[in-house]
Amino acid sequence: MNDFAEIADRVEIDTLRAEFTDAVMMRDCARLAELFTPDGVLRMPNVPVELVGREEIVTGRERLQSQWDFFVQNSHPGTIRIDGDTATGRTYMQEVARLLDGRSGANFAVYHDTYRRTPEGWRFAERVYEVRYLDSTPLAGSAPGGRAADVGGADASDEGTADDFTAPASAERLDRAIAALRANGFTAELLDDAAAARARIKDLIPEGASVFTGASETLRLSGIAEDIEAGDRYDAVRPRVLKMDRATESDRIRRMVATPDVFVASVAAVTETGSLVIASGSGSQLPASAGGAAKAIWVVGAQKVVPDLDTALRRVEEHALPLESVRAQSVYGHPSAVNRLLVLNAEPQPGRGTVLLLREATGF
Known about the structure:
This protein has 364 residues and is α/β, with parallel strands linked by helices. The chain has twelve helices and 16 strands. It has helices at residues 3-25, 29-34, 54-65, 147-150, 171-183, 194-204, 217-222, 224-230, 237-242, 250-258, 286-292, 309-332, and strands spanning 36-44, 49-52, 68-83, 86-99, 104-118, 121-135, 187-191, 210-213, 235-236, 262-265, 269-271, 276-280, 295-300, 305-306, 340-344, 353-358. Strands 2-1-6-5-4-3 form a six-stranded mixed β-sheet. A six-stranded parallel β-sheet has the order 7-16-13-10-8-9, sandwiched between helices. The longest helix has 24 residues, at 309-332. It starts with a helix and ends in a 6-residue tail after the last strand.
């Protein structure tokens, strides 16, 4: 190989490494995966993580970044040794990060790389991450608009604090929740408003399916409940149940609401780490969400996105419960209570659970 060709290869490999850091910083998991060969491997033994192939790299990185409040990565070029259509090298890293659970720190690390020439250009065949120094001392700073700002620090943004459970989450936080939900096995879609969710529901539910709608202000206000329960497109479970005798047909009611073809409802909160939190007074709606329904669809307003599970539980007690108690008092003659609480951390059945997350606030 002549000197010019080797210089060109080195420039391309350096560009590849810079693209990796940029994709990480921009949270662009799809672009990051394209920097690897189709069978490329990303190994991070300290996490521990081993991602093989582009698809695993996308989902694995989404799962990791869903845990970040913020993450800053600086890369410094190391060695490159070229041998025909393969090469090896090292890249030196300096990083600072804070997770949504409050842990933070800084580290120095090395990426041990193997590169391969492909028709698309040089790509990573393997990156192995080795931490050389770790400082877990809590970081004093914060990212503008990040969690430290959200909880009322000096940099608190105009969208409100984490305790303002009525304010729609920012675009960045919505994207973070969507990525985390997908990494946890949910099908997650980001829609503009309740009208878009109302239209999307018609695409997701086949005609003739038995559909149980959970008691939900989101479904009522959006018109989704009326679409399902008032028309003849579906076999609507709730209207049938309301006409049945609870004293003599309780077993049949229980089975009907627990195992419909499709369950449609909302949640009390969705965390930026990809969990759904559902509160109930009677518990009648929980079996369908937990796995009884063949498919479940949750329509969620942007104000329900919270950083973590602790905040989600506070949202249930401090915000959703008082509002639901007022509604229950007017409808049933008594206030509500959080007698049952369900947390869905992941969806183990691909395609079963769909979250339609809205950019606008709606419901409780």
